């Protein structure tokens, strides 16, 4: 299925989009449609490097611990008023859990991990003048990453070449949500956010959706990043829509009909 057909399942007017699929081992490009080198906010795809940080630092223990209770001061959306463990955190994309974890990490360790990961532009300053980088930098703010860089980062996870323990990589891979795309077994993370202007202000007429991860079939492994930015406000969070359209098209994207 062409990339344009997949995006029709999401929203009809993209101003920026990329579908990038590479061989996990060699890095050979299997599919590259659209603009894949422009950096935007990672949004909730940043929960992948956050999990690596949490496990490596000993804040997270395994797939189901710690389990933190919701507190009113988190001021979260109603669906997230619940106890959350690492698996629930990744599956339901719970923001307050991310912020509690980065607070426990502290600014120095957080900055060290982001720099060590060579993640995107590495800018964790946050919103101008607010000194909120520890809890907001990845949310339509200062930190930005391109689809090319997302794929490179996922490949380094699979190669176990990041500066964290092997155990932290294994646990992160285990808690990421699983999906099916035909015969492909998929692990990946969505993200939803907005583009920002030169002043750093969020442009809500430019919503974006991500889906990044890897897929395996018969001993073959690929890494992917799918990004879609809409022209005009979207009535839904784009991340899950981008995920669903990508999963529907993945078998044909990787194995086109003769």
Automatic annotation (TrEMBL):
MF-aspect GO terms: beta-lactamase activity; penicillin binding
SUPFAM superfamilies: beta-lactamase/transpeptidase-like
Enzyme class: hydrolase
Record's catalysed reaction(s): a beta-lactam + H2O = a substituted beta-amino acid
Domain of life: Bacteria
Keyword Signal: yes
The keyword Hydrolase appears for this protein: yes
Residues recorded with modification N6-carboxylysine: 47
Residue intervals of the Penicillin-binding protein transpeptidase domain: 32-232
Active-site residue list: 44
InterPro entries: Beta-lactam/transpept-like (IPR012338), Beta-lactam_class-D_AS (IPR002137), PCN-bd_Tpept (IPR001460)
Database matches in Gene3D superfamilies: DD-peptidase/beta-lactamase superfamily
Pfam families: Transpeptidase
Keywords: Antibiotic resistance, Hydrolase, Signal
Family as reported in the entry's similarity comment: Belongs to the class-D beta-lactamase family.
Name this polypeptide is given: Beta-lactamase
Source organism per UniProt: Aminobacter aganoensis
């Amino acid at each position: 299925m062409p990339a344009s057909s997949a995006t029709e399942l999401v929203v009809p007017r993209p101003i920026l989009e990329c579908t990038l699929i590479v061989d996990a081992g060699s890095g050979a490009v299997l599919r590259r449609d659209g603009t894949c080198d422009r950096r935007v906010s990672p949004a909730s795809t940043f929960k992948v490097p956050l999990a690596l940080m949490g496990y490596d630092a000993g804040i997270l223990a395994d797939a189901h611990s710690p389990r933190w209770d919701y507190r009113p001061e988190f001021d979260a959306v109603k669906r997230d008023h619940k106890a959350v463990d690492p698996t629930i955190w990744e599956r339901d994309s719970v923001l307050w859990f991310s912020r509690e974890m980065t607070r426990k990490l502290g600014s120095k360790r957080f900055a060290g991990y982001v720099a060590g990961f060579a993640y995107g532009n590495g800018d964790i300053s946050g919103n101008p003048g607010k000194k909120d980088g520890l809890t907001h930098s990845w949310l339509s703010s200062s930190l930005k990453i391109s689809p090319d860089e997302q794929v490179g980062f996922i490949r380094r996870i699979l190669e176990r070449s990041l500066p964290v323990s092997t155990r932290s990589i294994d646990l992160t891979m285990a808690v990421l949500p699983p999906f099916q795309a035909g015969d492909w077994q998929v692990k990946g993370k969505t993200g939803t956010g907005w583009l920002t202007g030169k002043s750093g202000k969020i442009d809500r007429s430019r919503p974006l959706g991500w889906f990044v991860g890897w897929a395996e079939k018969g001993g073959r492994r690929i890494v992917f990043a799918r990004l879609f930015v809409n022209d005009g406000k979207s009535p839904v969070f784009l991340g899950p829509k981008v995920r669903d359209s990508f999963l529907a098209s993945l078998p044909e994207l990787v194995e086109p009909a003769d």
